[in-house]
Structures are given as structure tokens and as C-alpha cells.
Design a protein that fits this description.
heterodimer; A: 205 residues; mainly alpha; 9 helices; 77% helix; rod-shaped; B: 106 residues; alpha+beta; three-stranded antiparallel β-sheet; 5 helices; 56% helix
């Protein structure tokens, strides 16, 4: 294996595994090194190109942003998927139609609004999946913030509902609990992406 | 010139050399070196993350070209890229003017 092949293997190991552009980056770097090597020799070409690990790390912010985007966007359909569990799991309410107690009704309405905000922000993030940076992370932060608030309020609502409606199964609490755990994981990924984006902005390379 | 000084303006430099015409990574580095008369001599690999960021921001577009012996990725400015270049050039001139005033025009 020659110096250029060794360099490319090192770069391949250094590139984030979640980077969509891995193959393209490796192809472009190989083309560059071969052209430079034809003029100056392989060792000189590699020395002029720079450290493979340092270069690989420069792609970490983009990969982290995309991973965070996938995590947040994957959360958003969860309430729709969980809705049948509520619909089928809840016993009939003891109040007449339209007579929901106010302390439950406002929470239900606020959860719905927050989920709509989260969905809207998630849709706004989609065109920026390629672009990354603040254009992507900003809407994702709004989506996750709204989703997180909806999830916490939904957990409170589920507990209060269980108090108000006899026979409500306790397993129903697993639904908001699962949402909170998934939102926390997405939050960690988004936090990491935001930190890497800030570090990337400090030098503009 | 110190690499960290160049780093802060790499995107502007790349937009400026691409204003001359499309080019692939190695050609852009050579253009930059030539136009700066050797003053800008940074690790060549650093241009690729910058090129990909600029492309992600819609300021560049690229495609594979089979014109040379090897398949290579050629970059060109988009309309938005030309507008961004003009804006950043104006910003740079303001910055340079202000620095000149502070350091006494040296």
C-alpha cells in the first residue's frame, strides 16, 4: 500500500460514520493527492495536504447536525402513532361530550398547539438538511423545545386524566415516559450539534 | 502568512478565486497560491470542508467531470454565490479600512 492509499485509509477512519459525503470526500481527496503527487511526489503531496485526522474532524459538525435532525424529525410523528394507544386504552370519560373538566381541557389544547408548532418547525428545517449550520439547527431547536414542552405537559395531563377517569390503565403512563426519554436523547444529540457548530464558527474553516 | 490568519477568510478567498471560473479543488488551491504570490500557503485539505460548506449554503454548485484522465469534482459559483462574494468583499474592504486607521495605515 503506497503513501496515498495509507492516507486515504486514515482519512476514512477519521471521517464521521454518519457523514453523508464520506465517499465523495474520499474521491475528491484521492483525485487531489494523485494530481499533486504527479507534480511533487506522494510524500510531498501528503505533507502539503495536511493531517488526515484533523481534516476528518472538520466534517464532524455537519454529520452531528444531520444526526440531530434525524433524531428530532423521527420524534415528531410519535404522538400520531401513540394516539391509538390512548383511543383504545382509555375507558369512557364520566363527563358528557363537551364537558371535559377545564383543568384537563386547557392542557389538551396547549399540547395540541405545541405539537403543531413542533411539526411546523420540523417542516421548516427540512430544506436546510443539506445546508446545516444555524439554518438547520435553529428550527430543530424550536421543534424540539415545543415537542419537549408538549411531552411534559402531556405527562401531567395523563396523570390527571388517570385521577379523573376511573379504570384508566397505569401502562398508559409509559407513553409520555417513552416520549420524554426519546426527547432527551434527541436533546443530547442536538446539544452536541450546537456545540460543534459554535466551535466551527470560531475559525471559519 | 500565519495559517490562523488565512483561516478566518478562507470562504471569501475561495469565492473570489471561483469568480474567475469553475475549478476543482487542486486547481483552486493553485489559483489561490498564484494570485496571492505564495502568501497564502495553508494545508491544502482545508479547502474541502470550506467548499462543501459553501455548497451546502447554496453559494456554490458542483458536479463530477470526466474531462480529465481522472473523474473530478468541479465547483462553480451560483447566482447567490456571486451576491455573497460582493457582500463579503464590501465587508472586507470596510474591515481593512478600519484596521488601517487603527494601525496608522502601515
Amino acid at each position: 500500500m503506497g503513501p496515498v492509499e495509507r492516507y486515504l485509509r486514515e482519512l476514512e477512519r477519521a471521517l464521521p460514520r454518519t457523514s453523508l459525503a464520506r465517499r465523495r470526500v474520499l474521491a475528491e481527496v484521492e483525485d487531489h493527492l494523485r494530481e499533486a503527487a504527479a507534480e511533487h511526489g506522494e510524500e510531498a503531496a501528503i505533507a502539503a495536504f495536511g493531517d488526515a485526522r484533523t481534516l476528518g474532524r472538520r466534517y464532524a459538525p455537519q454529520a452531528a447536525a444531520r444526526l440531530a435532525a434525524l433524531a428530532v424529525l423521527a420524534l415528531l410523528p410519535f404522538p400520531m402513532l401513540a394516539y391509538p394507544a390512548y383511543e383504545n386504552g382509555l375507558p369512557p370519560a364520566p363527563w358528557p361530550a363537551g364537558g371535559m373538566p377545564s383543568h384537563l381541557e386547557w392542557k389538551r389544547d396547549v399540547v395540541a398547539v405545541l405539537l403543531l408548532v413542533a411539526l411546523g418547525a420540523g417542516v421548516a428545517a427540512l430544506p436546510n438538511l443539506r445546508r446545516g449550520g444555524r439554518a438547520l439547527l435553529g428550527p430543530l431547536a424550536v421543534a424540539l423545545g415545543a415537542y419537549g414542552a408538549a411531552t411534559v405537559l402531556n405527562a401531567v395531563l395523563t396523570v390527571e386524566w388517570a385521577d379523573a377517569v376511573p379504570g384508566t390503565p397505569s401502562w398508559l403512563l409509559l407513553v409520555p415516559a417513552a416520549q420524554i426519554v426519546l426527547a432527551a436523547v434527541a436533546g443530547l444529540l442536538l446539544g452536541r450539534a450546537l456545540l460543534l457548530a459554535r466551535e466551527e464558527r470560531t475559525p471559519a474553516v | 502568512m500565519r495559517g490562523d490568519v488565512v483561516k478566518g477568510h478562507l470562504e471569501l478567498l475561495l469565492l473570489a478565486v471561483l469568480a474567475e471560473g469553475p475549478g476543482h479543488g487542486y486547481a483552486l488551491i493553485e489559483r489561490l497560491r498564484a494570485r496571492s504570490e505564495g502568501a497564502f500557503d495553508l494545508p491544502e485539505g482545508t479547502i474541502y470542508p470550506a467548499l462543501h460548506r459553501l455548497e451546502g449554503a447554496g453559494l456554490l454548485e458542483s458536479g463530477w467531470s470526466d474531462a480529465a484522465a481522472r473523474r473530478r469534482r468541479v465547483y462553480r459559483l451560483t447566482q447567490r454565490g456571486r451576491a455573497a462574494l460582493a457582500e463579503r468583499e464590501a465587508e472586507w474592504r470596510r474591515f481593512r479600512g478600519a484596521v488601517d486607521v487603527v494601525v496608522g495605515g502601515a
